[in-house]
Amino acid sequence: MQLQVFTGCGDAKPVIRAVEASRIEGAVYHDVNDPRGIGILGISEDPTFFASAFRDLLNTEPFAALTHRPQFTMLGRTYTSGFEADIDEWLFRRPRRTALNPAWPWAVWYPLRRNGAFSRLNPQEQGGIVKEHAVLGHAYGDADLAHDIRLACHGVDVNDNDFVIGLVGKDLHPLSHLVQAMRKTVQTSQYIQTLGPFFVGHARWQSPVRAERA
């Protein structure tokens, strides 16, 4: 997945028409913190898509007349921890359903980078720290307050971040509250070097979820 952000868009309708006509899989967001801002989420299993069809789309009108905001560009790949029972569900189906669910139009996207101290912990210590984070996220998800998309971006992020996180839901407040609650976890309070910038968007268009893999 990749998020690209632009400003200078007073009317998102031409953008939505262009993205819809391109038949890409993704979403168009209004940027809550910029009254002329938009975000475009592209989804593909093939990384070439981001250097070809997605790139071509963003170099045509109406995007060519907009101002790109590269500080908000986020690119990442889905990943597993090795304990998932259904790999295809975790890597391919669940992220699409989460990002493209029309019942969850609010989105908060942000990158993060852990500090070196986390890498020096043994696997058992790392697992305990990550589990605390995961339990909190599952609680919000089970209550239909916030749902997460977790992407790894090692080596593909211009600022050397480790992960891209997308939080989506039907309302914005629970997404903000989850970020606040996670500030108290061991991982965030002790092992995060950088967090953000945060893109806060409301989906104005989402593509249909394509047929699931066999």
Structure description:
- This protein starts with a strand and ends in an 8-residue tail after the last strand.
- By secondary structure, it is of the alpha+beta class.
- Strands 1, 2, 3, 4, 5, 6, 7, 8, 9, 10 and 11 form an eleven-stranded antiparallel β-sheet that branches.
- The mean pLDDT is 95.
- The longest helix has 20 residues, at 123-142.
- The chain has two domains: 1-72, 2-Layer Sandwich (Alpha-Beta Plaits); 93-203, Apc35880, domain 1 (Alpha-Beta Plaits, 2-Layer Sandwich), CATH 3.30.70.
- It has helices spanning 13-22, 48-51, 53-58, 87-99, 116-119, 123-142, 172-182, 186-191; strands at 2-7, 25-31, 38-43, 67-68, 74-75, 77-78, 106-114, 147-152, 163-169, 192-195, 199-206.
- A hairpin with a 6-residue loop joins strand 2 and strand 3.
- The radius of gyration is 17 Å and the shape is globular.
Number of strands: 11
- Beta-strand residue fraction: 25-35%
Q: State the share of residues found in helices, binned by percent.
A: 25-40%
CATH architecture of the largest domain: 2-Layer Sandwich
Unreliable parts: none
Instruction: Give, in order, the helices and strands.
Output: EHEEHHEEEHEHHEEHHEE
User: What's the CATH H-level homologous superfamily of the largest domain?
Assistant: Apc35880, domain 1
Largest sheet: 11 strands, antiparallel
- The CATH topology of the largest domain corresponds to Alpha-Beta Plaits
Structural class call reads alpha+beta
Name the overall outline.
globular
Total count of domains: 2
Calculate the terminal CA-CA distance, rounded to whole Å. 21 Å
Radius of gyration, in angstroms, nearest whole number: 17 Å
CATH class of the largest domain: Alpha Beta
How confident is the prediction overall: mean pLDDT?
Answer: 95
How many helical stretches? 8
